[in-house]
Design brief:
about 35% strand
């Protein structure tokens, strides 16, 4: 009887050690690990995230505003292709097309990602896409809006630098230095429809939309009038894409 109890005790110890080992290795692929677990070796060893040497600043541009989608850092997460997911404080730099991570020590680290990494901010997914608009192709970070097998809708965060016009330059007062208005970073976000592998910019007018060939022209005209579709509103675009995806 004593021998049996010893064997049971050994089995319990082995089971406990194995459980601890699995916990240290990160647990299941769906678990969310804390920022403190997001070590440099875990973050960068897979080759899907690239650490930039330093924060890119537009020091040579004296402009009002900033190039961030949201200037403040937000709670989010980084998910890898193998399912590992880490929470982090993040923000997105639109101009430089990279994310910035704010560590527990306050240090800010800029990173770029490839197509194998998913970034979550406010429960919205951002991923890298190879986008061709007109004759120009480029990599761009897009936010999922509607993703299905037939038609997909994405939000493309963009900002442009608006330079002051000649008429906006103030004439110098007598005895004072010349004052000029500064350039401004302006939002220029657009939506993209992905149809048959192609990314198509959503136009502002229904006439241009109907000529794109994405929807049946007659049905589109009827549906958008009946539902008073506004191509500038995300909720209306969602209705439109879901209707023509059925």
């Amino acid at each position: 009887m004593k021998k049996i109890l010893i064997n049971i005790s050994i089995l319990l110890v082995v089971f406990q050690l194995n459980s601890q080992s699995r916990g240290l290795s990160g647990g299941s692929s769906s678990s969310l690990s804390s920022m403190s677990d997001l070590t440099s070796s875990k973050l960068y060893s897979g080759g899907d995230i690239f650490v930039l040497e330093k924060l890119k600043k537009n020091n040579n541009i004296d402009a009002v505003g900033n190039t961030y989608l949201f200037e403040e850092f937000k709670n989010g997460s980084i998910q890898f292709k193998d399912g590992k997911k880490y929470e982090a404080n993040l923000r997105f730099d639109i101009s430089n097309q990279n994310f910035e991570i704010k560590g527990n020590d306050g240090k800010v680290t800029p990173i770029s990602i490839n197509e194998n990494v998913e970034i979550y901010l406010d429960n919205q997914r951002y991923t890298m896409h190879s986008v061709m608009l007109g004759e120009k192709g480029d990599l761009a970070v897009l936010r999922d809006v509607v993703v299905n097998n037939k038609l997909e809708l994405y939000f493309f965060p963009r900002k442009v630098l608006e330079l002051p016009t000649e008429s906006s330059i103030q004439a110098p007062s007598s005895g004072y230095a010349k004052k000029t208005k500064k350039a401004q970073w302006k939002e220029a976000h657009i939506y993209l429809i992905k149809s048959k592998g192609n990314y198509i910019e959503v136009p502002k007018s229904h006439k241009k939309m109907s000529l794109l060939g994405v929807f049946n022209e007659k049905e589109y005209k009827s549906y958008r009038k009946q539902n008073k579709i506004d191509l500038k509103k995300e909720e209306d675009l969602i209705m439109l894409i879901n209707h023509f995806s059925n």
